[in-house]
Amino acid sequence: MPGEHTAGEAAEEAPANYSRRQIIEILIGLMLAMLTSMLTTSIVGTALPTIVGELGGQDRLSWVASATLLTMTASTPVWGKLSDVWGRKLLFQIALVIFITSSVAAGFADDMTWLIAARFFQGIGTGGLAALPQIILGDVVAPRERGRYSGFLGSVFGVATVGGPLLGGFLVDSPLGWRWCFFITVPLAVVAFIVIQRLLKLPARPRSENRIDWRGATCIVGAASAVMLLLSLGGQEFDWLSTPSYVLIAVAAVLFLGAVLVERRAQDPILPPHLFRNGTFVLGSLASAAVGMSMFGVMIYLPQYLQIVQGLSPTASGLMTLPMVLGLLTASVTSGFLVSRTGKWKVFPVTGTVLIGTGFFTLTFLDTESSLVLVGFGVCQIGLGLGMCMQILILATQNAVRRADLASATSAVSFFRNLGGAMGVATFGAVMTNRLHGEIAEFAERTGGSSGSSDLSSGVSGSPEAIHALPPAVQDAVISAFSNAMHTVFTLGMPIAVVAFVVVLFFKQIPLRSGR
Fold first, then answer.
1. To pair with 1 at 20 to 30 A between CA atoms, which of 164, 171, 415, 470?
2. 439-473 pLDDT per residue, tens
3. Which residues cross the membrane (predicted)?
4. Which helix (H) or strand (E) element contains residue 381?
5. What are phi and psi of 71, to 5 degrees?
């Protein structure tokens, strides 16, 4: 495909070789940094009701989560390019400092405005900590050997996904309180900073005469921010078909067009246009977006099924995601080792997308009486599929681009995965809401609108505890409505997996390079 770079091309300048022990030590620092950043996005959900109860500002609740997601996604491509200009290690440490400072600020917040501002900056640091570990690993380890190490980076996601809500619930219920949901990540980030400072020794980068493409960065960040605001707040803060939605769509379109024009003329663009002539990069970005949609869809909405339909506690519902995490961990590490041993990688995303699809298919059989064994089997399949896809897609992309484009390509794939995740949450949420209200409307029509209509309205938007406190007839109706709505959500996951499967089929099996 045009723009591909095969193993036979001349090797570009690479850093000095590292011993396996040095690589493992560096990997530990990178994993700690990724763990802290991912915990930040998952730990706060459990604490939000308590935070709002203490600080007030229920009308701005969604901004506590959206602010971090917005800046994390929008800043990811910029971190990659800046690391080309200023150096990986320096940018990684800057990201850690931003993260540590904003986490402390969030922990000391005394009102919602302060907390949202701190979360905004926390997202900027998180964007760097999400993209730069993959880029640094690409500098340190050759593609042929990278699989065995990248699998461990992928497994961090699963640990943070389950560990975050469980840890958040424990801290909120403990004498430490919700503020330690932010403080707890600081020691890990400090340790990661020290490890990287002592062990990561990359050769000095030649001073670049190219200017940073600030105009391109502004357009890319602005367009991504507009899209993220639309996906995060649409259907909640304002209707999808409303003036704010139209304004955000127009802003995103104008800035996207501006980014295309600016990047085509820039001397050193943030997102080089020639990457989009590279087939593996395009396919890897599309597949990552589809995988992100599946991943965030099941992560966000499965707990609702478990807590509302099955009646599990938040802690128990978090434990029910362990099969997914164990599947992700096992598949991520195993596929990484097999890729390093055989050099063959395409089979894993192909198999992984099939497993994601079959996992969603299994979940479509869930109802109000389903066994938790069936839930565990379905989410385990999805976890195995995610483990075979996430890191391998990044590895394949890194292997297919020039070394000079490694940072831009890696951060772009991460960007598209996060953007896909936001699209997944918005799409799954819209589908679930429409089906849920349709089910409730049908029940109200059957009962003539006289049987607990006010209870029905409050039940749809209430907490699991409030739903299970409703009168039996109304409670059964609400739980049945949620069960049917979740069936539609899980059904939607199957065509998304099919799209990902078709995309990865078009991958060209490029041999993994033995040199960096």
1. 415
2. 777 776 776 655 444 555 555 555 566 676 777 77
3. 26-48, 60-78, 90-108, 114-137, 149-171, 177-200, 212-233, 245-262, 282-302, 322-340, 347-366, 372-395, 415-433, 485-507
4. helix 372-400
5. -70, -30
